[in-house]
Amino acid sequence: MVGASYIRLALSTNNEDLQDEWKAAKRSNKIKLVSFLKEKTGYSVSPDAMFDIQVKRIHEYKRQLLNILGVVYRYKKMKEISAVERKAKFVPRVCIFGGKAFATYVQAKRIVKFITDVGAKINHDSDIGDLLKVVFVPDYNVSVAELLIPASELSQHISTAGMEASGTSNMKFAMNGCILIGTLDGANVEIREEVGEDNFFLFGAKAPEIVGLRQERAEGKFVPDARFEEVKEFVRSGVFGPYNYDALMGSLEGNEGYGRADYFLVGKDFPDYIECQEKVDDAYRDQKNTVETTDELKD
Hints:
Elements: H1 2-11, H2 16-41, E1 50-55, H3 64-79, H4 83-89, E2 93-98, H5 106-122, E3 132-137, H6 142-151, E4 154-157, H7 169-175, E5 179-182, H8 188-195, E6 200-202, H9 210-218, H10 226-236, H11 246-250, H12 266-285, H13 295-298
Helix pairs in contact: 2-6, 3-5, 3-10, 3-12
């Protein structure tokens, strides 16, 4: 039954009536989420923006830190150009995070603190307005997921390759008409095969490369991308408040030692990640782009 439903849906991809119904359903779900976020966080977000969501247990290998550093880089680039250029260059986004951290997991708590500090700064920046919002949803649970997942347009599944045993929330997002950005890891592998390479935004090191990349780091051979150094310096400048983020940024530096040396390869994948996010923007602008029905499905 699932296979038959998939084929019928694939054969209907150029049906404009179906596209209109799909968009209407998605917008309705986004409006519901807008109301929920206002009630729970006090932040007002636009339903016309792309809803970019990462909801997972807060853990360094799941790399919420990579996501929020990407947001910070985006914000910095926005601030460096004029309002007219900003509007032309950037697709409006609402970046939503959710998840819980173990009580004793200090680094995970630092990441949550960082996300909320970034949100507090960006969400009150009148120069940016609805072009970028950051929301951390409190007390993430199944009931919250029932609102977030149907409203999603981009979902992030960006664990360090080889460290996500499976991961199943990406399936829920995919079944709700959400595009994924992620590494070649866990269930991402099968989803990418099913939806097609053009409908999955892939970035990052592959699992067989990870051991070698960590060894390269231990030998002092890793050269960080200038954009990665730029975003860390920006965080340390104090723009996101008085909290000292040296410990968090320091975990991404050095070549060895507990809590250092960027074990989860955030710095290695950062340039590929932000370039992939630019491709996401380009695709979101092209709302009329439809998937060609394959010869196999036609048969």
